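Exercise 3.2. Students should predict the tertiary structure of the chain below and write it as structure tokens, then compare their answer with the key that follows.

Predict this chain's 3D structure.
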Amino acid sequence: MQIQAHLLIGGHWRAAGDNGTIDVVNPATDVAVGTVARATAADIDEAAETAERGFRLWRDVSAYDRSAMMRRAAGLLRDRIEPIARILTLEQGKPLAEARLEILGAADMIDWLAEEGRRAYGRVVPGRSATIQQTVVREPVGPVAAFAPWNFPVAQIARKLGSALATGCSIVIKAPEETPASPAALIRAFLDAGVPPDVIGLIYGIPSQISERLIAHPAIRKVTFTGSTAVGRTVAALAGSHMKRATMELGGHGPAIVCSDADIALASKLLAAAKFRNAGQVCVSPTRLILHDDIHDAFLERFTGYASAIVVGDGFDPGVTMGPLAHARRLDAMERLVADALARGARVRQGGQRIGKDGCFFAPTILSDLPAEAAAMNEEPFGPLALVTRFRDMDQAIAEANRLPYGLAAYGFTGSASHAARMAREVACGNLAINHMTIAQPEIPFGGVKDSGFGSEGGSEAIDAYLSTKLVTQSHP
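Answer key:
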């Protein structure tokens, strides 16, 4: 299979121009499997101008008809799950089973947003006089610039694309250059479902050049970004300097508090599955395991057993349960973080090293006895790295959970209602799951606080940032 990812502008798939192409590399083999077109400045401008035309058309399509097209797109995505999953595994590395789940999750998100768009209600506010009529109207904000990451390129774009289309906005998507073909397949489903060609644009290229030019373009009225906190700060500053509203879903360093009264069989199983999903390249991954002294050893034994049973390999191979890291930069980061932790006295309980010489494979790794100043305890690892620390009382556990500037996802396991209530009240995060791990379903809000961003991309809140509020007050003589 060879990937040839083109730009999409005005419904036309456009090959590379003067800026040439970028290689797409299979992280399981280190072999180039295709190319992606790199947008020029003229391409970026044309994509924004086309989105402005598309917005003038799409905003006048009824919410009912927009919803119907989106539902058709979700159906096409499900029908095409096998070829799209194979593309996703080829360019991103995750096992085929995980690729299929991502596509099904994206289809569910589109269905949910299609229905939410039909319920973007306004309201009537009683006037202070019988002759005054006051209505509050919610209108689409305008063309959207969306920036998506490589770890879940189909699911993350589905959130942004679905929210924009459901509310009557057009959109220009800057998809990840590492994983360009699976987002293109997602967008084809929308075009085949009847969405007008000017409504959706797709570009790739040098990220900083695209963000600086696209966000500044006067046609763009809304920015949505998923990625690292460091890059998110730059994108948010660009949006703010041009008075564009922004949704930022940024990095995390998920704490997981396991109390002495927790069901450790359940906790160890769920946390291991979540930690090593997508090779740990998940913003809501439980990264810091904060274990009560009384259950520390028993939990760690079970958790290590799950980690040692993981089969690492090419995502296409039967039986593989964890694929490679997405690129060599992540390998370098894992080796640096492990070396720093060991130099500071940490113990390797499992893994800790690269696997083989070909591909970007790193063993599922568990480190214990880390001091708080270890780099891995402060930087988002974004890889198969589980960091184990201890606590004696809830004050200590909550202090560690809140120690970092991140505030995306957190987890707690306890049999105590009072412990659960304290975590719900005191842990600073946008998403908290207690005694289970599900936090990113379509019907519930998803977003962070502190350095993990602002805004939501799930639940009824998902469409709010794509709508402007207009008051219409009228006097009737």
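Discussion points: The first strand starts at residue 3 and ends at 5. Residues 257 and 412 are 5 Å apart (CA to CA).
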